[in-house]
Every structure is written in structure tokens, then in C-alpha cells.
Design a protein that fits this description.
Helix content: 10-25%
CATH superfamily: Immunoglobulins
Largest sheet: 5 strands, mixed
CATH class: Mainly Beta
Shape: rod-shaped
Number of strands: 8
CATH topology: Immunoglobulin-like
Order of helices and strands: HEEEEEEEE
Distance between the termini: 76 Å
Strand content: over 45%
CATH architecture: Sandwich
Number of helices: 1
Strand order of the largest sheet: 2-8-7-4-5
Radius of gyration: 20 Å
């Protein structure tokens, strides 16, 4: 009987450890709220916002972007006429990355 009890306790502990470690195993996530892909911005002013979870570093077109402790970020940028491709990269502390791109157009 005690062998079964020990096995059950070990299984519970391993399961709990796996649940707690899942965010680390999963890696970073990145969601862009604004701008939507293939959007036109007649004034050239673009509000960029989103959330990068479990990310130690966030970049936009290679330049570091500040984000809050909870992962949310926002910025207002100005773009020249023409098309632009925005590349967001979130990197976690283990070097794993996730990338999102948005195409915008300024007429």
C-alpha cells in the first residue's frame, strides 16, 4: 500500500512541476494589436501596440522596443510615403524567438 501512495505522490509532484514549468518550456509569445496587416495610414502616423509574453527582449526592425513588465507595449511612429514592412521579434532569456510582421502603406 505504501508503494502505491509513494507513486501517487511522485506523480502529483511531477505533474505540478510540469504545470509550473510549462511557460518556460513554451517560449515567448507575441501578439500585435495594432497596426493590422495591409493597412493604409494617410497621415503617416502609426500607433503600434501589442503584447510580448515571456520575452526578455523585444525589437521592431532590429531596434529595441520598451515593454512593460506584463509584456504590453505601445508606441507612436511616423513613416514616410510608400510601403513599409514592420518586423517584430520577441526573444526569451534562453534565446528562443518568435517573429511577427505587418505590412503598412502611407499614400
Amino acid at each position: 500500500m505504501t508503494k502505491y501512495l509513494i507513486c501517487v505522490i511522485l506523480l502529483v509532484l511531477v505533474g505540478y512541476g510540469f504545470i509550473k514549468a510549462w511557460p518556460l518550456i513554451q517560449g515567448p509569445s507575441l501578439s500585435i494589436a495594432s497596426p493590422a496587416d495591409h493597412t493604409a495610414f494617410p497621415g503617416g502616423i502609426v500607433i503600434i501596440s501589442g503584447k510580448a509574453e515571456r520575452a526578455a527582449q523585444l525589437t521592431l526592425d532590429g531596434a529595441p522596443t520598451l515593454h512593460e513588465e506584463n509584456g504590453s507595449f505601445s508606441s507612436v511612429l511616423s513613416f514616410p510615403r510608400g510601403g513599409s514592412i514592420l518586423t517584430f521579434v520577441a526573444t526569451d532569456r534562453f534565446g528562443r524567438t518568435v517573429t511577427a510582421t505587418r505590412n503598412i502603406f502611407v499614400p
